[in-house]
Every structure is written in structure tokens, then in C-alpha cells.
Amino acid sequence: MGPLRSVHGQVKALFAQALLDAFPSIQQDAAVVKGNPKYGDYQCNNAMTIFKEHGTGLGFQTPLQVAEAIRGSLPANDIIGEITVAPQGFVTVKVREEWICKEVGQIVLGEVEYRDLPRKRVVVDYSSPNIAKEMHVGHLRSTIIGESIRRVLEFCGHEVHGLNHVGDWGTQFGMLIEYMKEAYPNFQEQLPEVHDLQEFYKASKKRFDEDAEFKSRAQLAVVDLQAGGEFARSAWQKICEVSRVAFNRIYSRLDISIE
């Protein structure tokens, strides 16, 4: 099967041929747009312009007559079904369901090629879940949407990079690191699961809000982390790694491609 052509492009080509056959002396691109679903799938808007600029010279009395000439010149095809001509000159068409079924069947049964030129480099930003917390449905939704966009763009021939920012940074990690030094002092050797980190985070937030001395230590831990302190940086990296492992389990089940 050859490269896939858009439905709009094929309908537009039919109207371009109709305009050429009906008005060979007029050079005009086919103005075909998406139609109102109530009336049809696509709408050709050339008749009014042709009437304003050439109607009298061509012997037409109304835009409707121009539109009828366009309709009458449409080439024989199996794409267009019902055709409606409005008094204002709009030519609205419906695509045949039989043609759609045939095209979809060919796509399902055979290989399809499609190229959206020019080829571009595209970056798709995924869900970027929070470190030390389990993913929720919002993260799953944006991940699936991002992967769907990526696959469509790759199918169209673009160079696509899927990125996922995983690496929160700030006061919450000062709280978490300081709390884990007390409650789970060997956490860097025996890494906890991400759901444990989430519980530790909740407990550390409670301590931070209620214990002024703990709050001060947590704030100093943030300063140490941002200054590149060996213990704080190592603890932060371990927490990030625990989170990534948990996230990747889900990404793997969903067949998500993230660089």
C-alpha cells in the first residue's frame, strides 16, 4: 500500500479538478474546509468569490449558480457521497461510509506509510511524577496522552524524544532526609519502597509543622543539599532512584518509551 493521503487532501483535489474543468480561465486554489457536522464533512467556499469577481462575465446571476457548476464538474469518484448546495454558494459534501470502511480495512490488513513533511525534531514532556510519592491517575493520564502523541508523530516520520523530569528539589527533601535519619537511619543501604517514602514524607511534614527544632534542622538539610553536601546529595539520589524504579515498573507495563 502506498503512502497514506489525508481525506481532506483527496476531497480538496477533487474540488480543484472541478474548478479547473468548470472555470478553465480562472486560476484559484480550492478553498475546502472542515464542514459543520450537521450538514456534511467538508465545505467548498469558492463559489462566492468567483461570483463576486467573475459572475457577470461568466453569465451567472447568483452564487448558487456558480456552486451548481462546481458540483456538476466534480469528477466521478467513490469518496464523495451526498452533496448539498446552499443558496449562498457553499458546496457541502459527505464522505461515503463505504469508502471509509474500505480504507480502514486496507489500513488494518496492510502496512501504511505516511510522511508529514518537513520532518521535525519534537520533544514530548511526559507526566513528571513527584519524587517520593506514588503516581496517581493524573500522572497515568498525561503519560498515556504523551505516549500516544509520540507514537503518532513517529509514525508521521518525525524525530521524537520523550522526556520525563524526575528530580524534585527543595524544602520537602530537607524534611524527608532529616526525618529518615531518625526513623530509618540505614535507608541508604536498605532502600525503602516508594509507598514507604510517601508515608515518611507525610510524617516529616507533620513534624515540620509542629516541631520548631526539627523544622530548623530540615531547613539546614536543604541548604546542605543545595550546597552539594555528600550525605544530603547521596540521600537525595537514593530517594530519586527508589522513585524511578517504581515509576519504571508502571512505564514498562504500559510499554512507555522515555529517554
From TrEMBL:
The keyword Cell inner membrane does not apply. It catalyses: tRNA(Arg) + L-arginine + ATP = L-arginyl-tRNA(Arg) + AMP + diphosphate. The keyword Aminoacyl-tRNA synthetase applies. Its EC number is 6.1.1.19. InterPro entries: aa-tRNA-synth_I_CS, Arg-tRNA-ligase, Arg-tRNA-synth_N, Arg-tRNA-synth_N_sf, ArgRS_core, Rossmann-like_a/b/a_fold. It is an enzyme of class 6 (ligase). GO terms for biological process: arginyl-tRNA aminoacylation. One of its GO terms (cellular component) is cytoplasm. Keywords: Aminoacyl-tRNA synthetase, ATP-binding, Ligase, Nucleotide-binding, Protein biosynthesis. One of its GO terms (molecular function) is arginine-tRNA ligase activity. Residues 9-95 form the Arginyl tRNA synthetase N-terminal domain. Pfam families: Arg_tRNA_synt_N (PF03485), tRNA-synt_1d (PF00750). Belongs to the class-I aminoacyl-tRNA synthetase family. This is arginine--tRNA ligase. It comes from Symbiodinium necroappetens.
